[in-house]
Design goal:
Helices cover 30% and strands 26% of the residues. A hairpin with a 5-residue loop joins strand 6 (128-134) and strand 7 (140-144). It has one domain (7-191): Peptide deformylase (Peptide Deformylase). The protein is α+β, with helices and mostly antiparallel strands. It binds zinc ion. Zinc ion binds at residues 112-114, 155, 159, 165. Zinc ion is lined by residues 112-114, 155, 159, 165.
Length: 193
Amino acid sequence: MKKSPIQPALDNASWLGSNLPIRFFGDPVLRTVCKPVTNKEIKNGSAKKWIDELTDFLKKYRTKTGAGRGLAANQIGISKRMILLWQSDGPSIYINPTVVRSTGEGVYPESCISSAALFIGEVKRPWAITVEYMTLDGEKKTLKADPIHTRLLLHELDHLDGIVCADRYTPGTIRMTTGDADEILKPELVRIK
Ligand SMILES: [Zn+2]
């Protein structure tokens, strides 16, 4: 029988469904507005434990699929305002992130581990943002994010507010993925404003 062009994507989804603590679209935790991490949770090590769980999961996912640049805590069932991003320079953690400034607008195709990365579609978002967040040491930081970093952060910030990228897909742009990591990692980010 001829192999389907989306077979690698289906294989990844099947592995994800049977091996890891990921929550999929439709799970109520993905519709819950996550609660801020408290200073007490930073001091008593709870925040560190949650970040370790996020890191552990994303590491496995990246090894399996070659993709996976971001994860919000509620995607593995932890309803707390924490984001893990993983770009070429390694993992970075954002606790209680808030957008303090945004400019312009861009279009970029997005996928999500919580849809088993089976679908991809175009989403319009601000072009660049500045965020304030906390580190695991409780230190307050401000980051002026470049456009790709902005996209990753805003996708995950949406998760923390109970919103998924499928809610924002431009109608007519949604399609199935093939399971090739480049399809997720390499699309062009287009500025429209
Ligand atoms: Zn997502």
